[in-house]
Amino acid sequence: MRTGQESIESWVGDVEFERVGLVKRAIKTVLINPFANYAPAGMLKSLLRFGKSELAAANWADPGGWRSMVISYNGRPRQIADKILVGGGSMAIALRNRRRLASRILAALIEHAPSEPVEVLCLGAGPGHIIMDALCQVRRAAHATLVDLSGDAFEYGRQLARELGLEQKVRFVQGDVRDIRTMLDRPPHVVKMLGICEYLDDEHIVGIARAVAEVMDERGSIVFNDLSDRHGTDRFFRRVFGLHMKHRTARQLCDLLRQAGFDEFAQTAEPLGVYRVIVAHRESRANRTSKG
Ligand SMILES: C[S@@+](CC[C@H](N)C(=O)[O-])C[C@H]1O[C@@H](n2cnc3c(N)ncnc32)[C@H](O)[C@@H]1O
């Protein structure tokens, strides 16, 4: 089955999101974000060091790495600084919303894949929270290959898989997603590129998507996300965390994926408007032929 806008909306209709009320949003816009963005970076770093922020330490060690993601996902930090950043920060809330949205969409794509076992390829997977959430929701036989640069993400991921009873369903491949051509021994039905495009250049995104499109059949799908600056703290992330993310609209990303041989885009946004999760399909042979 190919995913239209209607299917995606029906899959995610009852996902429970975290939301930010009007008053909190106003306080963030008028007070918190300007302070975070424009107070001297040295002072903010000292405050975070003094407050023993685990989120800041994780970003200083590996900006945008899997540990900071896991701290945001867990949402129950011990330190006061992290209670503010993780509990109330728009980016952390949006990340948790994206996780819920994406795992639901992946589960539906697995349920609708044309044959079993369903193969899912997860690029820049970290320890694999999102795909493991999805695998726990499906009845069909499915395997996931998780590719990441970081070996220690996989130690954590193996432990997570054991706790969830998924050890036989996931395998971990340490490597650079830009070398994806060497890792395509199992043609995937579904490719997951969540939380990774914001760290890649356009030509890498196109190269990776083209490589997976070449080995997929026509019913194959790809799931990815855009990133808007509506979280309002990009300047803070750059100056204080050393985190340089590439913000791209859904349209810009779809244009890149179209160049690589995908079409039929459908998308849905989490309520803060920071992320959209987008699904596309391998372009049909007929379309490719008619383009010449
Ligand atoms: C922000 S985390 C996202 C993790 C996971 N996809 C999620 O959304 O929960 C980004 C991950 O991409 C990995 N990564 C970044 N660049 C990569 C590359 N070129 N090849 C493989 N992994 C990469 C990092 O090691 C990190 O685990």
Instruction: Write down the CATH topology of the largest domain.
Output: Rossmann fold
**Low-pLDDT ranges:** none
Bound molecules: S-adenosylmethionine
Judging by the overall fold, what is the CATH architecture of the largest domain?
A: 3-Layer(aba) Sandwich
Descriptive tags:
292 residues, binds S-adenosylmethionine, Rossmann fold, seven-stranded mixed β-sheet, 2 domains, alpha/beta
Question: Describe it for me?
Answer:
The chain is an alpha/beta fold and 292 residues long. The protein has two domains: 5-13 and 98-291, Rossmann fold; 22-92, no CATH class. It is built from 13 helices and seven strands. A seven-stranded mixed β-sheet has the order 3-2-1-4-5-7-6, with helices on both faces. Strand 2 (142-148), helix 9 (151-164) and strand 3 form a beta-alpha-beta unit. It is globular and about 55 Å long. The structure holds S-adenosylmethionine. S-adenosylmethionine (SAM) binds at residues 64-66, 69, 124-126, 129-130, 147-150, 153, 176-178, 194-196, 199.
